[in-house]
Amino acid sequence: MRVIAKHAVDGGAPIWRKPMLTTPFFECYEPLIETRAFRQWAGYNTLTTFSSVEHEYFAIRNTASIFDMSPMIKYQINGPDAEAFLNRLVTRDVRKLKTNRVTYTMWCDDDGHVIDDGTIFRLGKSKFRLCTAERQLDWFLYAAIGFDVKIEEITQDIAALALQGPTTCAVLKKMGLVGVENLKPFEIGNYKELGFDIMVSRTGFTGDLGYELWIASANARALWDALMVAGEARGIRPIGYAALEMARIEAGLLLPDSEFVNAEFTLRVNRAHTPFELGMDWLVDMDKGHFNGRRALLRQRQEGIKHCLVGLEVDGKKPAIDALIYDSKDGKNRVGAVTSAMWSPTCKRNLAMAMIDAPHFNRKDELWAEIYIKRELVWQRRMVPCRIVERPFYSPERRKLTPPNDR
User: Fold this and answer.
1) In terms of C-beta density within 10 A (0-12 exposed, 13-18 middle, 19 or more buried), how is residue 256 classed?
2) Any idea what the Cα angle at residue 268 is, between residues 265 and 269, rounded to 5°?
3) For 274, what's the count of Cα atoms within 13 Å in the CB-facing half-sphere?
4) If pLDDT is split at 50, 70 and 90, which confidence band does 407 have?
5) Whole domain around residue 197: which residue ranges?
6) Domain end position, chosen among 211, 232, 250
7) Are residues 223 and 354 in the same domain?
8) Which pLDDT belongs to residue 138?
């Protein structure tokens, strides 16, 4: 149901607008907001930037950053058939996921096209939490027919913060979380040192050392204040979506509506993509038995893919945002298009991800990006050389190091 509020301004002239939700942390960081630059995420107001995207980005890479990820849609999945249901739903083998561990996965329709991606937290033998960027309850309930399982959305009950950057482990230790330094990547720890339950997962969307903190929404203020005190000497800074977007591109991570569109919402033929076409072959476990889309994926693996998402390094410093990709400088034969792009301050390289047609996604020689540059209100077309490179573009050693180095 859409809820619309009507406000009268300018002598009683009506203005219609849809009210947005705010997260449990909003009152904590509202005094720090300088830009009032908001964006919508799953019905919530989230910050694009607090003050400066440059300062926020470098907090991710050099100190400690806090990102409010409470709008992340969270589902609690319990019951005797919870494991069997998830194993039927997603492309990975959930049976291999141990308690207090997290895995990244995708789920597909019957044609093998990706509906969405997300993370599965195994909290017990028959207790899971699945987190995804957008609501998927209808699809999950449909897929759960015949299974003894209970699926419940708990988004508003659970508040979450992403704490990312090289000093984050030191911040958590300073805050009093005993043994947090021993958490391995994709491992979960539970702590009560602050007087309430905190679930910490060593996960994130930045490709850097980092953690995600999950609590009951009522404890948001207490957690925020404790983090800000513990992180003051470690350069802790709240960040918005713009800085996170830069970090996730450097990490080569996929974003819905950028690298792929939910297969349920595509209107045109060939606009949906399979995990193979997204370069995510490693997420598909064909040996685990049947799952949604398995037959179609087996067929595609035998026949081959017609296009694939690749990493690109582009000459120059102008980001190749929305650029078309050609096989030669004359720009006559288009072979792909950029999905995400940026100039990387850390890598000192012009980076992009692009969907490239076969057979060009295996090319070792140059491709060409069509980039438009605006100079004194005049647009100039440039054909810029680019090369296919491996993702992730940036993956520091500290991301996997256990225990992390204190800084």
Assistant:
1) middle
2) 115
3) 22
4) low
5) 18-72+157-250
6) 250
7) no
8) 92
At CA 199, angle to CA 285 and CA 114, rounded to 5? Answer: 30
Q: Is residue 275 part of a domain?
A: no
Helical H segments across 251-388, by residue range: 294-303
Residue 370 host element (H or E): strand 367-375
Regarding whether 80 and 57 lie in a shared domain, the answer is no
CA dist 272 and 351 (Å) reads 24
Residue with tokens 């400066």: 52
- The C-alpha angle 255, 96, 280, rounded to 5 degrees, equals 30
> For residue 345, is it within any domain?
yes
**Whether residue 381 sits in one domain with residue 345:** yes
Single out the residue of 72, 86, 89, 182 nearest to residue 125, CA to CA: 86
Quick one: what percent of the chain has pLDDT higher than 70? Answer: 95
Q: Which of 71-85, 218-232, 255-269 has the lowest mean pLDDT?
A: 255-269
Q: Are strands 236-238 and 64-68 parallel, antiparallel or unpaired?
A: parallel
Are residues 78 and 121 part of one domain? yes
Q: How many beta carbons lie within 10 A of that of residue 268, not counting itself? A: 7
- For residue 85, what are its two tokens? 């249901």
Instruction: Spell 129-152 as b/e; 16+ CB within 10 A means b.
Output: bbbbbbebeebbeebbeebebebe
SS3 (DSSP) at 395: coil
How many Å apart are CA 352 and CA 354, to the nearest integer?
6
Co-location of 168 and 313 in the same domain: no
